[in-house]
């Protein structure tokens, strides 16, 4: 019994010992009540949790900062690497690769000026219209930077976007407009608008700001060598002769000097310049045509053999061949072109531009049957509208059909040619020129109106419409065209004077016309048109003696021009200066004057007759002397 009792006791003691060891292993020396935490854990566990949480947050922030900073460092490194690579490719002339690299950078950084600069430069060197868009992006990011606006204006001018170029120049701050670069760009804009007076003024301002800049000197001299001012043209000639020894300007200077010498009939100088031009490394086929102009004027016998030598050389290239044929057509040698065509391989003539030059030759010599055959079929590509147009011309001019049928066929063909232009401005311009050349008044008017909507071609179109309406004596339409010309070129004094004078004659916008007359005179007091217009304006305002004083300062040969003579006669008759009035009435009667001028001349004759009928008033109390009657040599 006793042995059996001890065994359970030993087991119980062993179990208690194991439990104590177990609790000791858990790190507590005290028993706790069932369902409650130890006192130590209740007191210190929240603090430990806070420390742990703070440590985790700090670690997270440090990690995020490290990742962000490291990412930025990597992105900056990548951006610089792409920029250096794109710039190096641009420098090496690998324009496509440079553009691709810059676009990759721009995709990640849309406002990267460096990437935009590289894209703009690459597009400009490839003569791509994308240049305008890229320059516009840069100008938008740097609206107050004058160079960005000037670069945009230059790019816009290159691709005929005159309105955009003008807007860019207008954004240049007033303080930055007295820079040579601004004057140069403004000058080229004036040139694109057909305002040669404004172009000269701007180029002269650029030279004044940077007189040692040879490019600016060349631009001004090439313009002024054609000036009617002897002093200006002589100075320009001297400048171009100097620049003909400077490599970058040599060929351009020689071209201008050769043209000038031929125009002045200085054959010795022209021969010298022609020889130098032909020896120039940059000589072009167009330069050989300039030399042909000279040699034809120098000696017809020597010219013919030279032309025959040039022909085989031209036949090697379709563009040169067309250029020579065009030159011959324009210089009275279309008959020679027609004979030459028969000797040339058909492969040389089957497509533009040579097929167009051949059609023009047939039309010039009025070989309508040959022109019809030539334009009946063919592959003229983008110039298909000209093939149909020449066919229409041959139909209209041909005498082989009755008038009614020919006119109907002409209208059908011409409308087809108009449709084939596909609203492309260059095609519409070519067709408008052709219509004007053949005096298709209605067709040319419609085409020129279309062309006038395109800024780069607007000046040529408005000038063509001006001639057309003047020829047809449609003064109302003429006045509208002059208004548009004035809007396009507000600082061009002769246009301003024409608008003012016609407005006074038609009694339209009279007050504004008086103002425009004064503006034109203030800008160009020595220009006869401006002076006569202002004198006429003063006379209409009751200041006749002031108008006569202005006319008295003009050269006599200019006053005896039939148009000017009308206004001189009117003012002299108004002043009852009968002898002078009669002289200018005769000068006006002997010439062809415009309908509105005919009315003014009748008015002068009426005043003259009234003054002659009252001898006591025939002599003005304060006569104004005009320049004496010119001699025969002066006339």
Could you explain the architecture of this structure?
With 635 residues, the chain is mostly helical. The chain has helices spanning 2-25, 39-91, 95-108, 113-125, 130-141, 146-158, 162-170, 180-192, 196-209, 214-224, 230-243, 250-263, 267-279, 285-298, 300-314, 318-330, 334-341, 354-364, 368-376, 384-397, 403-420, 425-437, 441-451, 455-471, 475-488, 493-506, 510-523, 528-540, 544-551, 556-559, 562-574, 578-589, 595-612. The chain starts with a helix and ends in a 23-residue tail after the last helix.
Keywords:
single chain, 635 residues, mainly alpha, 33 helices, 74% helix, disordered N terminus
In short:
This protein is mainly alpha-helical and about 625 residues long. It is built from 33 helices and no strands.
The share of residues in helices is: over 70%
Described by strand count, sense and barrel closure, the largest sheet is: none
From the spread of the alpha carbons, the general shape counts as: globular
> Which structural class best describes the helix and strand composition?
mainly alpha
Amino- and carboxy-terminal Cα gap? 168 Å
Total E-strand runs: 0
What is the CA-based Rg, rounded? 42 Å
Could you name the ranges where pLDDT drops below 50 across 5 or more consecutive residues?
Answer: 1-6, 23-41, 617-624, 628-635
Mean pLDDT: 85
Q: How many alpha or pi helices?
A: 33
How big a fraction of the residues is strand? under 5%
């Amino acid at each position: 019994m006793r042995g059996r009792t001890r065994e359970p006791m030993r087991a119980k003691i062993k179990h208690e010992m194991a439990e104590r060891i177990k609790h000791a292993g858990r790190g507590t020396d005290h028993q706790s009540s069932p369902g409650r935490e130890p006192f130590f854990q209740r007191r210190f566990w929240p603090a430990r949790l806070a420390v742990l949480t703070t440590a985790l947050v700090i670690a997270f922030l440090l990690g995020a900062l490290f990742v962000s900073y490291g990412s930025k460092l990597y992105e900056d490194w990548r951006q610089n690497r792409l920029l250096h690579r794109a710039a190096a490719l641009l420098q090496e002339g690998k324009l496509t690769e440079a553009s691709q690299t810059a676009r990759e950078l721009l995709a990640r950084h849309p406002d990267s000026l460096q990437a935009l600069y590289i894209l703009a430069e690459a597009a400009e060197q490839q003569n791509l219209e994308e240049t305008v868009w890229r320059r516009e992006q840069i100008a938008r990011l740097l609206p107050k930077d004058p160079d960005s606006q000037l670069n945009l204006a230059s790019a816009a001018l290159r691709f005929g976007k005159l309105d955009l170029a003008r807007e860019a120049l207008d954004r240049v701050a007033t303080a930055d407009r007295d820079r040579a670069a601004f004057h140069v760009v403004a000058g080229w804009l004036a040139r694109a608008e057909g305002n040669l007076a404004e172009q000269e003024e701007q180029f002269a301002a650029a030279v004044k700001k940077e007189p040692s800049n040879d490019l600016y000197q060349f631009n001004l001299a090439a313009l002024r060598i054609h000036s009617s001012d002897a002093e200006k043209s002589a100075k320009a000639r001297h400048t171009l002769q100097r620049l003909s020894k400077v490599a970058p300007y040599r060929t351009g200077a020689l071209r201008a000097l050769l043209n000038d010498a031929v125009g002045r009939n200085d054959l010795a100088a022209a021969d010298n310049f022609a020889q130098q031009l032909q020896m120039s490394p940059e000589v072009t086929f167009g330069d050989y045509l300039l030399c042909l102009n000279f040699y034809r004027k120098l000696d017809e016998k020597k010219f013919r053999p030279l032309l025959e030598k040039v022909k085989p050389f031209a036949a090697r290239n379709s563009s040169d061949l067309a250029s020579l044929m065009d030159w011959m057509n324009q210089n009275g040698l279309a008959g020679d072109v027609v004979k030459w065509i028969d000797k040339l391989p058909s492969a040389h003539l089957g497509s533009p531009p040579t097929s167009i030059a051949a059609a023009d030759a047939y039309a010039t010599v009025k070989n309508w049957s040959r022109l019809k055959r030539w334009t009946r079929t063919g592959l003229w590509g983008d110039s298909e509208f000209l093939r149909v147009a020449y066919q229409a011309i041959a139909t209209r001019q041909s005498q082989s059909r009755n008038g009614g049928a020919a006119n109907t066929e002409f209208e059908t063909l011409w409308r087809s040619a108009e449709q084939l232009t596909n609203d492309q401005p260059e095609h519409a311009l070519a067709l408008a020129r052709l219509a004007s050349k053949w005096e298709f008044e209605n067709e040319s008017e419609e085409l020129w109106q279309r062309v006038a909507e395109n800024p780069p071609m607007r000046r040529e179109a408005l000038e063509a419409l001006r001639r057309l309406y003047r020829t047809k004596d449609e003064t109302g339409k003429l006045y509208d065209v002059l208004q548009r010309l004035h809007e396009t070129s507000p600082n061009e004094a002769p246009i301003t004077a024409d608008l003012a004078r016609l407005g006074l004659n038609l009694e339209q916008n009279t007050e504004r016309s008086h103002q425009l007359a004064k503006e034109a005179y203030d800008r160009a007091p020595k220009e006869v048109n401006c002076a006569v217009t202002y004198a006429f304006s003063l006379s209409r305002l009751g200041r006749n003696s002031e108008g006569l004083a202005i006319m008295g300062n003009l050269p006599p040969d200019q006053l005896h021009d039939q148009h000017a003579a009308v206004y001189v006669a009117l003012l002299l008759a108004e002043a009852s200066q009968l002898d002078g009035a009669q002289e200018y009435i005769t000068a006006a009667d002997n010439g062809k004057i415009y309908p509105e001028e005919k009315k003014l001349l009748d008015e002068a004759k009426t005043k003259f007759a009234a003054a002659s009928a009252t001898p006591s008033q025939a002599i003005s109390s304060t006569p104004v002397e005009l320049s004496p009657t010119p001699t025969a040599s002066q006339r």
